[in-house]
Fold this protein.
Amino acid sequence: MTPPPLLRIETLSKNFRLGSRFRQGGVQILQALKNVSLDVYPGEVLGLVGESGCGKSTLGRCILRLYEIDSGRILFKNRDISRVGQRALRPLRAEMQMVFQDPYASLNPRRRIGDLIAEPLRVHGTLNEAGVQARLLELMELVNLAPDHLRRYPHEFSGGQRQRIGIARGLALSPSLIVADEPVSALDVSVQAQIINLFMDLQEKFGLTYVFIAHDLSVVRQIATRTAVMYLGGIVELGETDAVLHRPAHPYTAALISAVPELTLDEAKPRIMPQGEPPSPINPPPGCRFHTRCPFAQERCRAEIPALAPGADGRAVACHFPLA
Amino acid sequence: MPEPASASGAAPRAEGPWAEAFRKLRRDRTAMGAVLVLCLIVLACCAAPLYARYVSHTDPFQSNPAGQITIHGQSVDIMQTDSAGLGLGVNPIGPTWHGQYFLGADGQGRDVAARILYGGRNSLIIAFFSTIVTLVLAALVGTVAGFAGGWTDIILARLLDVLWAFPVYLLAISLSIVIISSGLQIGPINIPSNSLLIPIAIIGIVYVPYVARPIRGQVLSLSRSDFVLAARCLGVPGFRILSKDILPNVAPTLIVFAPLMMALNMLTESALSFLSIGVQPPAASWGTIIQDGEGLLYTQPMVAVAPGLAIVITVLALNFLGDGVRDALDPRAKLRVRKD
């Protein structure tokens, strides 16, 4: 018996409009997300992987209502938040937070670290000034930063330190859900491990739930309990991280995994190579969106959209001819 | 400072961006020289009512065609008999290089040096306050347009485009002619046509698009930046985002614009005054004095040249200061080789 999901996404679609009616070419619709459904359970780390432009960051931002969605529903703790106004959304902000990819762009260069981290505390106004200061020190300790850093400005910190600041800010209101949008992809490899460990420590300490967006499979393997693989605005495979990474059922997942460079010079594994370039989300191919590049594509794939069919032990694959 | 300078450049001190910019500006010798020159000019002009009459011993706003002054014990006519010059059989006295009529007299026998000091007050006041008008309006329009987006942005941006479509001088001249001919009456407020408020408002307004457009662009890109997105995500209300995240990042642009706009406004004021549609007589400004000297260019060129020099020096100093401020506030200028 599975617990009720903390976050439920139902047939979420998001389009971006490009161009203008008054310019050459007119308005073009970019389908960033198409009919995405996903459950996130309390206490789990859901990895979200896929190549650039597959919509994984868009999905993260839609969850936090930083983008308006076009259709579908988002339920947080069983409450539909997909149509709630920004003002009414404010109390909910305390429960769901985001950690951004670029630790340089996500901190206002003209404010002190203390002000940046205290901003959510001051805005939500449940603490007096002494309480805010106490909470600040607590947060700095949680992310392993020195208390005297509170008086400094963002440009005085390294990428890893800035990401810690971003995490402290996200944690300030003690959220239950954190959407981490490629939080380590902008960092040095040596720093990546530290930040991932910090994420895991914090999860253990506070029972946090993460939606962890990444394009690096090794990052996902370290931290995610379940993994969803996205391709061109849709989820193509979902399951336990180990199962997905070791026995991929979708050809795209298999291609992603075989694209990871290996350090050993053992016998060369047969590589599954996607053919050509990813098609444009402005004009997605009919049928299975992967069929233009899939080495196993057949006639049925070109015509019929495969549903994300749930299988054994929580696996789900959107493919007419799954590999496993 | 007991703190040792760190070799990596990441100095272990909590210096804010403003303090850093100020420190850099103070090290900039050109900019500091410009500040000194500007201070001297402002002091000399603004304090003119306190000291000028003890030096010149005449009223610079009173024509004095029959007056005489004493130089080296000799009494000399201010308007000297001469067939050249004004074509009236007289020619004003040239520079005496003494306290009285230091730079000579103008066509009405008034002390040019004293008039330049008093005129400088008006020129500086108009340039300064019209700059404030420009910056305040531009900040308001640019920020609202860029932050609100949608129809507000479309309407405001088009309004700026309409204003921008007129050549600045043409617009300023037509507005001045209309308003100065009759004064301005808005409800109970009656602004006489010789009020300095008229050139201040006109010059201030015609340059608004010049500043508002870059501000709007900057606000537009700032409101899409990650840190504004982060603030939204934290539930920070829009007004607080504007005041804490956007305006502090726009402020450096406004500050860089300030001295440059003041220089531009001073030139515009002089041009309008030269055309008799800026400062109205008997009040003076550097522009009106140049106009006074126009007819005397061949006989007493100093009447036109001296205020012209005053304008050139002030505008140059403002531009040098503007460059220094820009360099000090530009974060990319950090890596520049130190000249000192």
User: Anything to note?
Assistant: The two ends of chain B are 19 Å apart (CA to CA). Residues 1-12, 333-340 of chain B have pLDDT under 50 and may be disordered. The longest helix of chain B spans residues 112-148. The interface with chain A takes residues 10, 14-17, 225-227, 229-237, 240, 244-245, 248-249, 331 of chain B (CB under 8 Å).
